Amino acid sequence: MSFEHIKDEMFEKEVKMPFQIPSKWDKLHKEELDKEIIRAGTNAESDAINLYEQLSTLTTNEHIRKILLDLARDAKAHAEVLKTLLLECDSEQREEKIKENKILETKLKWNMY
After folding, report:
1. Is 19 contained in some domain?
2. In sequence order, what are the residues at sequence separation of 6 or more whose Cβ sits closer than 8 angstroms to the Cβ of residue 59?
3. The pTM is what?
4. Domain encompassing residue 100
5. Are 28 and 40 in contact (CB under 8 A)?
6. Which of 1-10, 19-28, 79-88 has the lowest mean pLDDT?
7. Which of 49, 63, 82, 100 could be disulfide-bonded to 42 (CB atoms 3.0-4.6 Å)?
8. What's the sign of the alpha-carbon dihedral 34, 37, 43, 47?
């Protein structure tokens, strides 16, 4: 992917304002609010990962590229922590993850991957 293509793609998008707490969060019960907070954090980390990885492709400076990729790796770790936290707080998410793991175990057992 060329520098011009990436630059055009990054800058043609509307500039987002920093995260603002949605007004609907005022009406949520504590447990639901906690889940939304964790989801927002996970989304922010995902955005950070994408940004750092895209920026790393634009620079010709290896030192800067390495730091950007380190930041992306850190953001991935943060996202995993938040996903684990969401599983602790959300029984529906936890049950879905258990089902997914059982399906994966079955596929691996029968060499379906």
Report:
1. no
2. 65, 68
3. 0.70
4. 3-9+27-109
5. no
6. 1-10
7. 82
8. negative
Instruction: Please check whether residue 66 is in contact with residue 50, taking contact to mean a CB–CB distance below 8 angstroms.
Output: no
Residue 56 in domain? yes
pLDDT at 91: 87
Residues 6+ apart with CB under 8 A from 42: 79, 82, 83, 86
How large is the C-alpha radius of gyration of the chain?
Answer: 19
100 pLDDT tier (thresholds 50, 70, 90): confident
Answer yes or no: are the C-beta atoms of 89 and 31 closer than 8 Å.
yes
| Distance from C-alpha of 80 to C-alpha of 76, rounded to nearest angstrom | 6
42 located within any domain: yes
* Number of domains, the chain: 1
- As a whole number of angstroms, the distance between CA 54 and CA 70 comes to 13
Residue of 89, 57, 84, 91 lying closest to 72 (CA atoms)? 57
Asked if residue 82 is part of any domain, the answer here is yes
